TrEMBL record, chain A:
The lineage of its organism: Eukaryota, Fungi, Dikarya, Basidiomycota, Agaricomycotina. InterPro entries: Ntn_hydrolases_N (IPR029055), Proteasome_alpha (IPR050115), Proteasome_alpha-type (IPR023332), Proteasome_asu_N (IPR000426), Proteasome_sua/b (IPR001353). GO terms for biological process: ubiquitin-dependent protein catabolic process. PANTHER family: PROTEASOME SUBUNIT ALPHA/BETA. The keyword Cytoplasm applies. This is Proteasome subunit alpha type. Keywords: Cytoplasm, Nucleus, Proteasome.
Automatic annotation (TrEMBL), chain B:
It is found in: Cytoplasm; Nucleus. PROSITE patterns: PROTEASOME_BETA_1 (PS00854), PROTEASOME_BETA_2 (PS51476). It holds the Pfam family Proteasome. One of its GO terms (cellular component) is proteasome core complex, beta-subunit complex. The keyword Cytoplasm applies. Keywords: Cytoplasm, Nucleus, Proteasome. It comes from the Eukaryota. CDD domains: proteasome_beta_type_4 (cd03760). One of its GO terms (biological process) is proteolysis involved in protein catabolic process. It comes from Piloderma croceum (strain F 1598). This is Proteasome subunit beta.
Automatic annotation (TrEMBL), chain C:
This is Proteasome subunit beta. GO terms for biological process: proteolysis involved in protein catabolic process. Signal peptide: none annotated. It is found in: Cytoplasm; Nucleus. Component of the proteasome, a multicatalytic proteinase complex which is characterized by its ability to cleave peptides with Arg, Phe, Tyr, Leu, and Glu adjacent to the leaving group at neutral or slightly basic pH. The proteasome has an ATP-dependent proteolytic activity. CDD domains: proteasome_beta_type_1.
Amino acid sequence: MTSIGTGYDLSASTYSPDGRIFQVEYANKAVENSGTAIGIRCKDGIVLAVEKLVHSKLLVPGVNRRIQTIDKHIGLATAGLQADGRHISNRARDEAGNYRDTYRSPPPLKTLAGRLGLYVQAYTLYSSVRPFGISTILGAVDKYGPSLYVVEPSGVFFGYNGAAVGKGRQLAKTELEKLKLSEISTREAVIEAARIIYLVHDDAKEKEFELEMSWIGDETNGVHLPVPKELFDEAESKAKAALENFE
Amino acid sequence: MDHFPTNWGRPRNDAHDAYGTYPIAERPYNGPKDSFSEGVQHTQQPIVTGTSVLAIKYKDGIMMAADNLASYGSLARFKDVQRLHTVGNHTVIGAGGDMSDFQYIQNILDELIIDEFTAQDGHSLGPAEIHEYLAQVLYARRSKMDPLWNSLLVGGFKDGKKFLAYVDLLGTTYSASTLATGYGAYIAQPLLRSAVENNEDTLTEEAARKIIEDSMRVLFYRDARSINKYQIATITAAGTSISESNHLETSWDFAEGIRGYGAQTQ
Amino acid sequence: MPGLPQQRQFNPYSENGGTILAIAGADFSVIAGDTRQSEGYNIQTRYAPKVFRLTDRAVLAVNGFAADGNMFVKSVKQRLEWYRHAHAKDMPLRAIARLIQTMLYARRFFPYYVYNILGGIEEDGTGAVYSFDPVGSYEREACRAAGAAQSLVQPFLDNQIYFKNQLAAAGTSHPTHLPLPTVLSIVIDSFTSATERHIEVGDGLEMYVVLAKGRTLQGLEGIRGMQELTTTDDGERVFVVRRELKKD
């Protein structure tokens, strides 16, 4: 952390002499401390999965969802500061609603990711604000088919076949690369997603976690829905079994 | 001081604009004033209109029908318009009256449903909620003297309960086991009532379909703003469905026997 | 007139027929209305209630333009709920009456096109009826009819409740209050008669009875179609009696 004490890291509106914006890099640190979130683009849809770290046993199960619904056909998963995730999902809903109002059609994900990117980037320009401490995975099935995007704290966004953000992203990416993403079905991807989340979870360091999974595709009629309990339970038990074999 | 020469009074010559005022030479109007003329919204009338909508309760839920015509006055302007619209998972609405107002209503309901869906709070709007919402919107608009010019039927099935109700441009609401808007209130409603009243829980889908089809046929014979192409919606425990367009079988043989209508010359 | 622009203005009102009435007894009140809703010659529905229970001691009957009526009742109920939240008790009847005047007069220049009759029990335990015009003029009375068949029913009530045009037998006087069974009979007769002679009245009859605190059922026990709406008998009690009327 050579940036500390130099004075160039106090504001998002100040560059360091070598052209970096330290506040944005710190925002990325907030993402890296968060539970992992992954997204898989399959041939027939999208699967999102999140390792939601539960900081207290007193919490009611299922609260503080990190996968949210933006529009009928759009899901969003965040890694980073929870409150920022909720703010960005509200903004995404507004943008999606605004697009529908203007064009009377469902927003394509590329457009939505672009608008969210612009919004996030605006928070890297001013000394009066702090950049978003989240990376956002957006998944949808739109008129172009299944698509998957990630918006980072800097405001940049890329399209992916498989995406992973948060603490366990490195290992998760390695696992995602092993999958044949162009051939996999959403039903298969749900099993893989659960396995990867269980795999990257470090129970030596971390406490409890809840697995959150959602999907969009032919199985759901193009609607973003939580993975049905039956399939969820199957995926979770297979993930646990795989973990035993892995070790 | 008033710096505008046009406000200084009547010039000697009205035809000559001595001060070269822009855009036009205008003097203040000193005639009688209508202090209400501003702020009053004026006449509205429906432009492109749909005619009757029919709906009944039957054993499994609600059946609703409307033809595919949108008229421009007496001109049959659009002949493949859908006047039934699904709202959420448990409701269908059917509209008579102004079709642009109906499209506006469809849009606000679609937005409402998406807002409720994205909340993911485990609740979904049923027909009773949709109907109450529409009643509030239509009543608020009539109270602004800027009505949404429609008669709407709201049919639905949720939590094992049938729902069928009406709401119109005045915000008037009511519920019954048979409903008909527009011309249908005069022509179809008596037929529907005699077939359905007290049989709501025994009437089969097949029988219901026949009653609706017969009523649509009578309407096509008698309502000059109707067409022989229509759709039927059903709302049951299984959800909502709107059929493809059906064509009515009609027979005009009787016309031969009517003096002044058929081939007679005398 | 040639040359002058013609205007057809949107008419925000309609008339939905039906009739309501209320009669106050010494320690009870009866508020009734038919359930037909119509427009012109069309019966829109055979069951659209016009009588609403507001509290355990107040019942409101609303007649005129149905959309205004329903919206008005909804607002009154909301104000009563706010009162309950603020004061932890139901609003007294006379206060509800004044509230209704205020709410009606607030729309003096775009009125709710409705005639209201409020019936119930006052804080002193007496039966009461308040009647209103659409813009809020109101008074407390012993009986009142309103709506489509007002002109048929009110003279009948004047005769039967106020004993107008009746002379008491020598050495006797007219009673000041009638017993509940008599009042119910008068109400039923009013509506069956109005149904015969007025096309907008019929289908169903709903009669609400509000009993003062600690009073017996006064012969209400045996009434056909009676149903109690209150759950305890330590305060005022509200009952409803439903009857069929002719549907033609």
